[in-house]
UniProtKB/TrEMBL annotation:
This protein's record includes keyword Methyltransferase: yes
CDD domains: AdoMet_MTases
Transmembrane segments: none
Matching InterPro entries: Aspartic_peptidase_AS (IPR001969), Methyltransf_11 (IPR013216), Methyltransf_Superfamily (IPR050508), NrtS-like (IPR047700), SAM-dependent_MTases_sf (IPR029063)
Entry keyword set: Methyltransferase, Transferase
Lineage of source species: Bacteria, Bacillati, Actinomycetota, Actinomycetes, Pseudonocardiales
Name the record gives this protein: Methyltransferase type 11
Record's keyword annotation contains Methyltransferase: yes
Gene3D superfamilies named in the record: Vaccinia Virus protein VP39
GO function term, MF aspect, one: aspartic-type endopeptidase activity
Superkingdom of the source species: Bacteria
Segments forming domain Methyltransferase type: 149-236
Single GO biological process annotation from the record: proteolysis
Length: 353
């Protein structure tokens, strides 16, 4: 089992860093202090240093019982300062850079090992009107005569929903594309979306299903989308949305707790609910940005296992995932469901002027 930077085993993941004891932004560091994660290290230091300082500086006053409020404030400071210093030392060794995970390599291996996983998860998710996520995504696509590029198409679940379209899928996972071809979905091209094997202004629409939150570097990917999309062309994107309070939140909390993390990590976390802002910064005109909650039944252990399989968990040790699988298997029951909040963003390029 791997050890963490301080030489102790990370009790959440069994690895060097985990989202519950590491931080990237100052806000996360502050939360670690508030949640008491630094206390185990900082408390003994504060106890020893604070007691020594208080005895040396305020001992006589306290023993003579002549202490005032200011004496006790100083005693408190004697304990607080070493606590803060020791916490800062603890946190300094647990800072991770935002892009510490080698995402492209992880994603390539993940999708080759689990072809069709995103489709498997979403095809059984429905909203209140019994509509499925991919149907919702494709509704705004313009006339069927334009060439539609499915960016990071995976197993190409959109292909059958656009039977008359001039459709082309691009993805870098051989496993995903083999599944797409075996299902008669094509044409597909193996390639990286940050270097699309397509000419300028060649497509009339781009469909980005569940991918902009994982494609890196996102700036390069969006520049490529702009290059291949003709002026006035449409982009429809489907991305995960944040969980808000409501029914089902407890279910996701249970899943995350079983895995020992606070939330699922993404390569581009901002390319979810802040996607419209990102697209505008890249010169797109955003037409709509809508959130819809789909739900999927977690009715048996198989569905619970599929759910875990469908999460990107680059920093979680396999034995932790196994433990979570066992925990969630007994929780899964007919009629039990989890919400999948998704955001659909429709945007277009300005017509060349
Ligand atoms: C969450 S899946 C979505 C797949 C598909 N659009 C769907 O909805 O089922 C993300 C896809 O992005 C692909 N991918 C990730 N990075 C890529 C890259 N740099 N170039 C091409 N494909 C990439 C993966 O292989 C995977 O198929």
């Amino acid at each position: 089992m791997a050890v963490d930077v301080a030489g102790e085993v990370c009790r959440h993941t069994g690895r060097q860093m985990c989202p519950r004891c590491s931080w990237t932004r100052p806000r996360e560091a502050a939360l670690l202090v508030v949640r008491g994660r630094t206390a185990r290290t900082a408390f003994p230091v504060a106890l020893v240093v604070g007691t020594v300082l208080s005895l040396v500086n305020q001992g006589t006053t306290i023993v003579a019982d002549t202490g005032t409020t200011s004496t006790w404030v100083r005693v408190a400071v004697n304990y607080a300062v070493p606590f803060i210093v020791a916490s800062v030392g603890y946190l300094a060794g647990r800072r991770t850079s935002a892009d510490a995970t080698p995402w492209p390599r992880y994603l390539a291996r993940y999708h080759d090992a689990r072809p069709g996983i995103t489709e498997l998860l979403l095809e059984q998710a429905t909203d209140r009107r019994a509509e499925q996520p991919y149907e919702w995504l494709l509704e705004p696509l313009p006339g069927r005569h334009a060439v539609i590029l499915d960016l990071a198409c995976g197993s190409a679940p959109t292909r059958e929903l656009l039977p008359d379209a001039r459709w082309l899928g691009v993805d870098f996972s051989a496993g995903e594309l083999a599944l797409a071809m075996a299902a008669g979905r094509g044409p597909v091209v193996r390639g990286r979306v940050e270097r699309l094997p397509i000419g300028e202004n060649a497509v009339g629409a781009v469909c980005a299903a569940m991918c902009l939150q994982v494609l890196t570097p996102l700036d390069a990917v969006l520049a490529e989308v702009k290059r291949v999309l003709r002026p006035g062309g449409t982009l429809v994107a489907l991305v995960p949305s944040r969980m808000w309070f409501g029914r089902g939140l407890l279910g996701w909390w249970r899943v995350m707790r079983a895995l020992g993390i606070r939330s699922q990590p993404w390569p581009n976390p901002d390319a979810r609910d802040a996607l419209p802002k990102i697209l505008r910064a890249h010169g797109f005109i955003v037409d709509t940005s809508e959130r819809r909650v789909f739900r999927r039944e977690i009715g048996d252990p198989h569905a619970a296992a599929l759910l875990l399989d469908g999460l990107y968990l680059p920093d979680i040790a396999p034995d932790r995932v196994e433990a979570a699988r066992a925990a969630l298997a007994s929780w899964a029951l007919p009629g039990r469901w989890l919400p999948f909040p998704l955001r659909r963003v429709v945007a277009h390029l300005p017509v060349a002027g």
